[in-house]
Fold these 4 entries.
Entry 1:
Amino acid sequence: MDIIINATSMTPIYEQIVDRIRALIKGGEIKAGEPLPSVRGLARQCAISALTAKKAYDVLEQEGLVVTVQGKGTFVADVSPNIVAEELNRQVEEEFAQAIAKARRLQLSDADIKELVTMLLDDTDDGTDGGTGTTDRKGATR
């Protein structure tokens, strides 16, 4: 399991670990029942405090993504597809909220924001660039 910590990030280290392990679980790279490194092993691997590693595992356990068995270790939980879907929806909502906040800081009106979202949805529906190109307000992709 490869976890890279960005020491200069504004995101706390334990959250970086949680995000990476969550992504590995949801991406199917680590499966239900697979053991995770011990708290001390993770701390050693990431060159962090064991308390930070423990906090990351505690968050994952609260989310239902891992289970800890006393004396045996921490294992990936058998995660239901509903939990995965809910978490993915939450992440998308968070990203939309950040994008809307940025648009409002740039003084775009709600109507302009809705128009942009509709335009991006139309781009992905018609099989064109999947929303990755730059599109002007008239719908021309540049």
Entry 2:
Amino acid sequence: MISQTYALYKREVLKLFRSKYMWLMLVAQPLMWIVFFGNSLAGLPRGFLAQYFGVENYLAYMIPGMISISVMTMGMFASMSLVFDKRLGYLKRVLTTPTPKSAVFLAKAAGAMTRGLLMVPVILAVGAVLGVGYRVNPASMAMWALGLVLAGLGFSALFTIFTVNTSDVHAPGVINNFITMPLMFTSTALFPKEFFPQWLRVISDFNPLTYITELGRNALVYGMPPDIKALLAIAAFAAVTITAGVAVVEAKLEAD
């Protein structure tokens, strides 16, 4: 199964590197978010930012959140790739071989996770150009990198679970909106939890996007030691979604 998963994953990566439009999206999407949304709050007083955000520059607060959001949204491509393989007949050819359905699922999840990770250096570079100063903690950086991999796989699995039994090309986009918008605005990716009403804080405490974002802030912005509890929360999320994804794919994935 490992060799089959790797072969399918390699195909996902090759599709990515051969698409100039995918590369354009990997660069343009975070660039627009950072330049326009990030700078829309550039006028906030430094004292206010220091008190509530823990930074003197909102962009520094936003960069880890933007990376988390990008890794999450790239998960949509796992389900989108699966839908297109169905419509093009490629999945039917794969499933006539001894390849397990779970190998198809894991390769799609790993491919989408790779897309998300490729956005990380782009976002960090844009932040540096715009004046963000990083206070890097090496141990926290290593833990954050592992967390990004787990989160990428977890979100990819989550998207695929909801689209595994459809060949409708519109389904991944619809599911993307239903998942990413609530997770983004109930996390600390863009604003601190102190701004939330109590009921929203409770939701944020169960939001995996909050934990991967805070890992990134510890590693890049605050220079703080690693938070093992945050990593364990992300690992639990990934374990649940991947396990559920394998079960759903094995039960419901069909070539048509």
Entry 3:
Amino acid sequence: MKKVKIFFDIEREEKWLNEQLTKGFRCTKISSLGVYTFEETDKKHVIRLDYRDRMKKEKHLEYTDMYEDFGWSSIDGSKLVGIRYWQKEADGHDELFSDRESLAKYYQRLMGYSFWLGITMFCIVSMYFFNQDYSLYHDGLWRMEGSLFWKAFIFETPFALLKALPGIMVILFIGSYYRAYKKYELFKEA
């Protein structure tokens, strides 16, 4: 079974994937376009997500070996994004991070992830606004009348939403950064 879903918050993605596990569907592959491949299972599994910046080959091998030694198996996903998907049968030791320090570092990495994606989207939004011809809708739309106006308005609305998408994403990444910051502050050693 395949499902298509896009997430801007890694914790919501993890929660959704675990909900699929409780329904009896184990994730086997994740594409960078948000296509999740599932298979039915009768065993109880748990999935955890981690965010890591690009790692050198040796460091990545050390990273994966460490989790595999504890029974975790990696799910195929996009390595470009930096999100790592770990899954195993539930055995009571179901957390990737066992202490406050490692949790604080995890949320610090999430803050960096959200920050840079938000800055990228902000730059795109800035380019729109510095363009003097910027308008969500075509200028001629507002001079139309009657049913012609409504047909053109309905036709142009999806394109206007696409133009507004980077601005919406900036807001989503600011929210993601703030949530990660609050959790980082909670787990950070004083």
Entry 4:
Amino acid sequence: MGFRCAARPIAAFSRDDAVHEPHDGVEVGFVVVVDDDVVSAGPGAVLGSESLPEGICSVQNFGYYGILTWLPTYLTQQLGLSTTNSGLWTAVTVLGMIAGIMIFGQLADRIGRRRSFWIFQAGAFISLFAYSQLTSPMAVLIGGAVMGVFANGMLGGYGAIIAENYPTVARATAQNVLFGIGRGVGGFAPLVVALVAGWQGFGAALGFLALIYIVDMVAMLLIPERGGKRLDGAVA
């Protein structure tokens, strides 16, 4: 769905221009559709791996909305913080998210996209699960900052990983379509968290959110690593 959705709006170029771009000898799973005809399709399109970036965008947004929507309620109802203090604790988590984005970008350029995502995904899983078990306000304050770093820091890598896995003719469209779909999926997170919290409590709901990052780690295994490699068709 991902590549087809991204490619379909682009129909202003000729059939000869709609080429399938190789990256270092590996074909990209990309489909260009012109007048409802498939012009070019790579093995990724056949195998369905074109939807993987869409999947990790969905996980990112699901975790973000699931955490921030219910975090103030969790802090006031479960830990007994005042409204003012819960706002402060949430702000510290957001500051951690900002720091995480900057750290991720530096790390991804040094050790590669996949390794960086795996580090942050594992960190998000561990920190979010640990956060759900904390009871001391000071521990929650510090844990929230750490959770913010890992849970949202990956946002700094989606622009690069999508651009590096899509041909020039569809990169901008892919960025908007895939992350837009991710936001749409993430919009269900507050509802899902509320249902789990009503069933097992907010601590269990946060623990449930931690599990989605395991799915993210598996998806990253299947997305090609192209950090630092030349992208054919890119403007020098």
